[in-house]
Amino acid sequence: MIEVEYNLLLVFISYVIAVFGSYVGLNLAIRVPSAKPGNDLYFWVALSSIALGGAIWSMHYIGMMAVDMKMPVTYDLSLTIISMLLAVLFVAVGIVIVGRGESNIAKLIGGGVITGLGIAAMHYTGMASMQMDATMSYNIPLLMVSIAIAIVAAITALWLAFNLRGTLQRFGSAFLMGLAVCGMHYVGVAAMDMQMTGEMMPMSHSYDNPTSSSMIIFIGSVVVLGLLWILASKNAPKKENLVFGE
Length: 246
Known about the structure:
The chain is mostly helical.
């Protein structure tokens, strides 16, 4: 079994993008309950799911580049795109389920479970996109723990999106969400067992600098999230909160 190591700088960067995306996504999602049916609703659902789902996806790939696999690693483009779409689409479904109509616990849990499973599907689809001279298997207990963390994180995110009062509270919650998202990812990585299938390539002939690739993803994500943040700030609703049970 291959023992992996972590680039702590990239681990930190993955956390930062998870926090920023959570904060922007929360600020966009609060527009969904009051949005008019039709284009207005689709607009805010799309933006909030892109912010949350896209940031989770970005965190995942930066997090994968933070892992030193001790061998060259490339990624299948089609599976990489599918993993991104899974994250965005399942977050959108959860936002619509929880954010529209009468609020109740059943909708929160149902939407959270669907969203969490989608996030887990994104993660493991992304893992499957790795191309390397090794076979991959999983520690089932750790895999199940990672899925449970994804579901809890999704339920928490959806509750926070429609219940928090005030910018500072959403900001603090984004830090917690970042921890939850990163926790799911790195537990999922810990569940991975790799066995070499060929001769290990010397590290001097390995893949491109992962830090450079990670910074490209990070900067691109920050630019997109920054634009969404500006849009959210300019379209702040008069009433920013919904509370379950009210």
